[in-house]
Amino acid sequence: MNLTNCTRVTEFILVGLANVWGMENMIFACVFLLYLLCLMGNSLIIVMVILDHHLQKPMYFFLSNLSCIDIAHTTAFIPKLLVNYLSANNSICFYCCITQLLFYFFFGITEFFIITLISLDRFLAICYPLRYAIIMTSGACFKLAMAAWIGAFFSFLYQGVLIANLPYCTSNIINHYFCDSGPVLKIAGGDTRLIEALSFVVTTVVVMSSLFFTLISYLFIISAIVRMSSTNRQQRAFSTCASHLFVVCMLYSSVFFVYLRPNLKNSSFRAIKSVSWLHTLIAPMLNPFIYTIRNNEVKEAVRKVLRKKTLAFPKV
What we know:
By secondary structure, this protein is an all-alpha fold. The chain has helices spanning about 25-50, 60-75, 80-85, 95-125, 130-135, 140-165, 180-185, 195-225, 230-260, 270-290, 295-310; strands at about 10-15, 90-95, 175.
């Protein structure tokens, strides 16, 4: 086929989620509820960190970055998915699709870097408490966060530009609920081997290096916890680490399954769509609760805000 004279598509059709007859409203309600919990939980973290000066510490600085990422990451595609469920038109314009794809990977890669920084912060706080304040200064935290955001931006930028410039002539149906790289490459014309190779290398380097540093940090943390004299402190610390590692394992395992494939565009997208929910919505919804559920400082900050609201609006 001569791709040079083809008429480029101006919009794509998103297949969306697998529709189960009679359960469309329930699926819509579940997606909307999960998205609402994600927005509320992550927004609460950001507001608490801004309002309470006791939470303006490195850990909460990185956690608020993670909350911003989770809100932006899910907002990149969930509203469009919900709109498609309410309407019979599942189309998305070409440039909207490319923009969605770029933002999705930008925020997704940034999330891995920030999770690594959170584990590094906990490692320094637990294993080197006397040097922690000297190492994790506000300036150092800001530079680390900026490096994470900038590094993520340039990690996928080149592949995104290449994907945007591919010819799309034969089909405009994307077998996914958002514009993901594999389904988009599936319908693209031309040679996509370079893009697939670059995506595989970037994903491998980013995900594997992030996972390596995160696991190493938690191994040192667990080693330090074992040496604690107080049994109660050990149990609380182990419980906190276990919840953190649960989210980390869920996030990384789903990304491994979806993206660590040399031939991404020929994968089974039905299975990929099912697994993708773990890192696209479930993990962002769980993050604020997992990282703060046993955190007394956050609980106290919430109580302070609620007390202020109660005093500001006394009962009549």
